[in-house]
Fold this sequence. Notes:
Elements: E1 9-11, E2 14-16, E3 23-28, E4 33-39, H1 43-62, H2 65-81, H3 83-94, H4 98-115, H5 118-121, E5 126-131, E6 134-142, E7 145-149, H6 157-168, E8 172-176, H7 182-194, E9 202-204, H8 209-217, E10 221-227, H9 230-242, E11 246-250, E12 256-259, H10 265-277, E13 289-293, H11 297-310, H12 330-345, E14 349-352, E15 371-374, H13 381-384, E16 391-397, H14 400-407, E17 415-419, H15 423-432, E18 437-440, E19 460-461, H16 468-474, E20 476-484
Helix pairs in contact: 1-8, 2-4, 2-7, 3-4, 3-7, 4-6, 10-11
The chain binds nicotinamide-adenine-dinucleotide (NAD).
Amino acid sequence: MSTSTPCPLLINGEWLRPAALATSPVFNPSTGEVIGAVPLAGAAEVDAAVQAAHAAFPAWAETPVVDRTRIMFRYRTLVEKHFDEIARTISREHGKTYAESRGDLFRGIEAIEYACGAPTLMMGDMVTNIARSVDCETTRYPLGVCVGITPFNFPAMIPLWMFPLALVTGNTFVLKPSERVPFTALRLAELLIEAGLPKGVFNLVQGGKPAVDALLTHPLVKAVSFVGSTPIARYIHQTGTAHGKRVQANGGAKNYVFVLPDSDVNKTVEGIMNAAFGCAGERCMAGSSVITVGNRGRHLMGELATAAKALKVGRTDGEAQPDMGALITAAHRDRVLGLVESGLSAGAKLVADGRGVKVPDAPKGFYLGATIVEDVQPGMALAREEVFGPVLNVLHLDHLEDAIALANQSAYGNGAAIFTNSGKAAREFKHRVQCGMIGINIGVPASLAMFPFSGWNDSFFGDLHIQGKESVWFYTQQKVTTTRWIAEGVGDVWRK
Ligand code: NAD
């Protein structure tokens, strides 16, 4: 990829490079260099993409589900064939390590595999003889043009949460990926065409707010799937539903990890380190706030500090791989630093300091080392806001009840985890904590493709979540048919 790497739009099966469009730079976070320019589509390009998807819909919806699914099987094979190349593209434009990029894509492949179950997933229900000689059944139908708007942090997995399932259920699709990571989506789109998808069934527009607004208000769009930060998720839900669309909108998060005195120390430290610093904390399921309960909490701090200081930070765009890569942009890194400073000036205590981290072969990369801050009080911005960086807050409390009450004050509700050997404590925690994805001795309880990605509160706006059966319901509408056949006219041929 170079600054001249083309980043076309895909509209009606054609790769277009509208010369007049403004562009936005795409960075390699590892070095801070510009590696491309993404065209910023506007209302005209969005209209062309939606019109193409609308025109392709009738024939695609009539294509037997097994044939639609067969294309998805071919797509899965192609994505796997190009696994390494796509993972390297993710690392280059996002900054996460090669292993993390492989994980990102692997989770995406699982979503494709789930979509390959469409002939079964589309099945309806039936009750025979619901009244005398009357049968009743439900059948599922696609909606029409569906839209996906995705964030930067999982460039492969999150688009793949959306379009494979939308397509196999008979919808056509327009994807608008994050303008910060356009090249992964581009490659995923190229392979979809190679898999044999008819033209117009899948379209790709790149861009920012103007493209999103044109999609949200377009009269031919039936449904919008969104993943991103909470203020934008709320806006997408309000605007999309006001324009008559079905909307599922995943927002940001603040996920608590509870540590009880009886937990296994090594497993707990390992779990916390992964939860807090995996993908440099740029995960909506990052376990960024630890609450230790009881008297052992402060002893853990030494182990956590040692583990954090040992994490190697560096470039992810080459062969040698560090433990942790850069953040997405310099501006985002500076925002995270600002939150750390605000916590420290409000009285929090630094346990591991990643602020001065040096990467000698890439001095302009957007780096921040693993940082741990102790005694973060609930009122601090560091405790309330989503940080989305390699920063772990720790707070010590005496009782589980107080810890649960504190976590439940959060505006968000994506996930929470507990490390304990007590079934009773785990059960209480699971029952009382107000969020949608629970980990018991698992630090990042992000659900797999067959389960809903089940955020609560300000982590989700809508009714039907992304992934699993709920997403099948989101992308389809049901018809209920009630049938009675009367023998009149046929005579008694069916009876002796
Ligand atoms: P973002 O909200 O800035 O951007 C997401 C998408 O919205 C992008 O495609 C972007 O172009 C578009 N967008 C941005 N500003 C807009 C505006 N004003 N109007 C219309 N559209 C706009 O999010 P991000 O920084 O790319 O991603 C990080 C956020 O996503 C974090 O808050 C993270 O928690 C969240 N996230 C949530 C989940 C989940 O499942 N709950 C998963 C991954 C990421």
